[in-house]
Design goal:
By secondary structure, the protein is α/β, with parallel strands linked by helices. The chain has a single domain, classed as Ribonuclease H-like superfamily/Ribonuclease H (Nucleotidyltransferase, domain 5, 2-Layer Sandwich), CATH 3.30.420.10. 38% of the residues lie in helices and 18% in strands. A five-stranded mixed sheet has the order 4-3-2-1-5, with helices on both faces. Helix 6 packs across helix 7 and helix 7 crosses helix 8. 34% of the residues are buried. The model has no long low-confidence stretch (mean pLDDT 95).
């Protein structure tokens, strides 16, 4: 069985020291069939790293309308779901990945999650396949494609808009991972 995990988190900012995780989505991807299954989908906050209502109101996730301050404030404390997340990760010895893996995994590590096997980052693997140009012509090469750019490259007949919600994003990112696997670009 070639089953792996694809995870996605949402946060109030870019660094775990001054931001909180607001949602975690985890999807199982069967690399033999391409089948995807949502295993975990929870909004959360961190009481030990509590941010003021003003900070949450000013966060990109709220300002862009992907989540509300009330949704974050009324969510479960991450401490209460940490063991469940860890047990899901531990149950998949083939490993875990995430689109922009460094971001998601660094936040989860900061929150005490341990990873025994990290798989390649699909964003990095997609760069030379998607060939998304930099807006500024002075840069050489290609930029790291965002999820929508990669998804629309692999599935041009689908008009996908990233929701910036953990499980939905992970579900679509798993489809990108499967395409990379079929191209033999993504390996275990």
């Amino acid at each position: 069985m070639n089953k792996i995990l694809v995870l996605d988190i949402e946060t109030t900012g870019l660094h775990p020291t001054d931001s909180i995780i607001t949602e975690v989505g985890i999807v199982e991807l069967d690399l033999d069939s391409g089948e995807r299954k949502i295993l975990f989908d929870r909004t959360c906050h961190n009481k030990t790293h509590f941010l003021t209502k003003e900070h949450v109101d000013a966060s990109w996730i709220v300002k862009k309308g992907y989540m509300t301050t009330q949704e974050i404030q009324n969510s479960v404390d991450f401490v209460l779901i940490r063991d469940e997340i860890q047990s899901i990760i531990d149950a998949y010895p083939n490993g875990v990945t995430a689109y922009n893996k460094v971001f998601d995994i660094s936040f989860l590590r900061f929150y005490g999650i341990k990873f025994t096997k990290e798989l390649p980052c699909p964003m990095l693997l997609s760069t030379n396949i998607v060939k998304a140009p930099f807006k500024n012509a002075r840069h050489g090469g290609y930029k790291w494609p965002n999820v929508e750019e990669a998804y629309n490259h692999f599935f041009p007949d689908n008009d996908y808009t990233e929701l910036h919600r953990g499980a939905d994003d992970a579900f679509h990112e798993a489809k990108i991972v499967y395409e990379l696997f079929k191209l033999k670009s993504f390996t275990l």
